[in-house]
Amino acid sequence: MNAMAAVAARLGKAALTLLAVIVVSFLLIRLAPGDPAQMLAGDSGSADAAFVAEIRRDLGLDQGLDVQLSRYLKAVLRLDFGVSYREKRPVADMVLERLPSTLLLTTSALVFSIVAGIALGALAARRPGSLLDGAITAVSVTFFAMPMFWVGLMFIIVFAVRLGWLPSYGMLDASAEAQGEWTALADLLKHMVLPVLTLGLYYMSILARVSRAALLQVAGADFIRTARAKGLSPGLIWRDHLFRNALLPILTVVALQAAQLVGGSVLVETVFAWPGIGRFAFEALMTRDYNVLLAVFILTSFGVIVVNLLADMLYQAIDPRIDRASAT
């Protein structure tokens, strides 16, 4: 299989995966308890039945699921994600307004978790069984075991309420932007510290443990012993032999982390009142705003698929044998 055919096959699988996600998400949301029409009419149960039925007609919810699904798929092909039931605005515009905030938060947390996790894993692997190794393992297990929302709340209590060092909510103070670009940037960075740490520490703990295990496994391989016997320097062995061969499992975890970060951002954005699509999706769930939920699911699923495609390409760059295996 040549390179172009392999890329075409991957893109075809990605398109089918995205289609399956859309169909399954649509059906699950429609079959979940709750009625958007009742929510809009008033959830007290006292709303007039005729009024609720009229709202359902206006929203197209009185049609069969097959008709609603067919109509939605045709609209999505035109990149039309409908109108928010609650705010009566195009969903695409509302998501795009909040997407940069989520990308800033999740990308920063991902970079932090990769750099800190791999660095800690490498330090632990260089001295297995040492006090440093034990301390890094203990820290990793601790942050992995603690719920993310609880970590965020503890950070708020300690660093925002008790010490007053950092802001506890929002993305930017209203007065900061009026004081100039540099003041606004400094204020943004202060607002980012706690959410990024809350989101990144959990994934850092996973990467640290995986990196340590992968590096120790490769360190015991025959070709590493051969490299040492040839008199190669420890730094060269780590850079060109050990770390490169340990990258595949690390890269797999990084790809999975990137997929899970959006799910984690829902909790973090809610705890810190961060104006991103995670908090936006949570609010839409509470109000049964189907179109908003579906748009967020589609967008995040698309991002996960893209990340996995990039991971496949990186696998081949690191280990060309993967490409030859897929061709057979």
Can you give a write-up of this model?
Helices cover 78% and strands 0% of the residues. The protein has 328 residues and is mostly helical. The chain folds into two domains: 17-77, no CATH class; 93-327, MetI-like fold (Orthogonal Bundle). The longest helix is centred in the middle third of the chain and has 39 residues, at 181-219. The protein is globular, with a radius of gyration of 24 Å. The termini are close together. The relative contact order is 0.13. Residues 324-328 have low confidence and may be disordered.
Secondary structure topology:
Elements: H1 3-31, H2 36-41, H3 49-59, H4 65-77, H5 91-126, H6 131-145, H7 148-162, H8 181-219, H9 222-229, H10 234-271, H11 277-286, H12 290-318, H13 321-327
User: Can you identify the CATH superfamily of the largest domain?
Assistant: MetI-like
Gross geometry: globular
Q: Can you tell me the CATH topology of the largest domain?
A: MetI-like fold
Radius of gyration using CA atoms only: 24 Å
Distance between the termini: 8 Å
Helix content: over 70%
Q: Helices and strands, in N-to-C order?
A: HHHHHHHHHHHHH
What's the architecture of the largest domain in CATH terms?
Answer: Orthogonal Bundle
**Mean pLDDT over the residues:** 79
Describe the main β-sheet briefly: none
Question: How many domain modules?
Answer: 2
Q: Which secondary-structure class do the elements indicate?
A: mainly alpha
Number of helices: 13
- β-strand percent reads under 5%
Number of strands: 0
Q: Return residue spans where pLDDT drops below 50 for at least 5 consecutive residues.
A: 324-328
CATH class of the largest domain: Mainly Alpha
